[in-house]
Amino acid sequence: MSEKTVLIIDDEENILSVLERLIRSLGSVALTAGSCAEALETLSKGPVDLILLDIWLPDGDGVTFFRELRANRPDLPVIFMTGQGKLEMAIDAMRLGARDFLLKPFNFEALSRSIRAALTERVALGPNVPGIKKLIGESPAIREVWNQVDIFAPTDITILLLGESGTGKELFARAIHAKSKRCRGPFIELDCASIPTTLIESELFGHEKGAFTDAETARPGKFELANGGTLFLDELGNLSPEVQAKLLRVVQERRFRRLGGRELVTADVRLVGATNLDLEEAVRRGAFRRDLYFRLSELPLRLPLLRDREGDISRLANHFLHEYGQRYRKQVISFTPKALERLESFDWPGNVRELENVVRAAVLRADHEIDLCHLPPHLLSQTIHLRETSSVTSDGTCGSSLVVAEAKSSVDSPPMEPLSETSQKPSFDSITVSIPPLEGEAGINLKLITHQLKADLEKKILTHLIRVRRMNKAQMARYLQLDYKILLTKFKLYGLDADIDPSS
Q1: Cα separation of 311 and 8, whole Å?
Q2: Cα 264 from Cα 257, distance rounded (Å)
Q3: For residue 50, which of 207, 373, 397, 472 sits 20 to 30 Å off, Cα-Cα?
């Protein structure tokens, strides 16, 4: 969130002072304005990433200001701040497209969470309908996803977005909303992984005053706020069984009660869900309800990994280079061929988000162009050495094979885990790829072979760490610099769970 800019618009000096300190504690730049006119003047001077907006200001109301702002800056997120007496105006603003609203006096944990979520949202503009953020890319994999979005977004079918962290699930959810018949309604999102289990029900369905200890005022939930629009439930695989049961009832009946309430509330909402977990496996384990899974996955849409998006790594890297060059006022105009080659050959376990972070840091380090020395060590540390060997086929013609001998470090860096006595040096079995003779052969599928080569090498490395290094999963995740959930996915893919001590 570094270097993001937040504009706070409020006419109370004490509120401005408190929020300014909070924004700075979150690592961002804070600007303040006490009126609509002062805010417009501030916006004309430079870019702003988020606005905190009071409902009532000396020279107008925040909702009217927001309407005018949306006409010119539809991509700029706004969080409303309001007292209880102006709650209905805040709800109207949410339905117009505001990101969130927060009641005064503030719950600073909820406020910080909302600000972080708004500032970490990826803004990557591409060819799209006006005002909608889109992942850049021209690869067949990403084009196929957009084709599915174009077909199914105008319907009310429930879409489940599947993919690893950093693949752009929220961006696709917003695009689905923008291309739907509900595009003029609100787009409301909830990150189910970031809300404590004890609060998730209140966030979804709202609560009445006095429903629980801290419920000092009534508050509508996300379903109520999304009425007439789209509700995006991110990381819904983290929902508890109790919340899953209540969510199923709402999905089926489109009605619910606030916590502590008696009246039934109707919700005309289109649901879009997202998860980086294997929900089918969770259903088999009993961790996720089968009936809810089928309700939410009328259309499962799997988002491609960055490494599977042919040609898009360089497109995205150059986009981020241009964006952060402008943001930081740096005259960094290009990558050296070696730097771009290294970016394109890296596996990117963190997908687009990781690529963006790498390029942003490189822009800050470089002066004119980005070279290998400006990239982080983990991009440079693993080199796969190939050697070619000759062979003679049964008919006497010459062929050859590529052999992956071993993986070595190309830069000096301290090991993540100490080597065991039985293995002072990593040693992996060779992986051989046969190259057929040029004459009389149909050739080889390079993409298929390299994909299989990568899978074989990954399995051998993991097996080596299990059997020789005697590592558990947590140690492996740290050593391989992998997200723990991604490591678990690879274990399942390669059938390695039986090879590791269950106690680990």
Answers
A1: 40
A2: 5
A3: 207
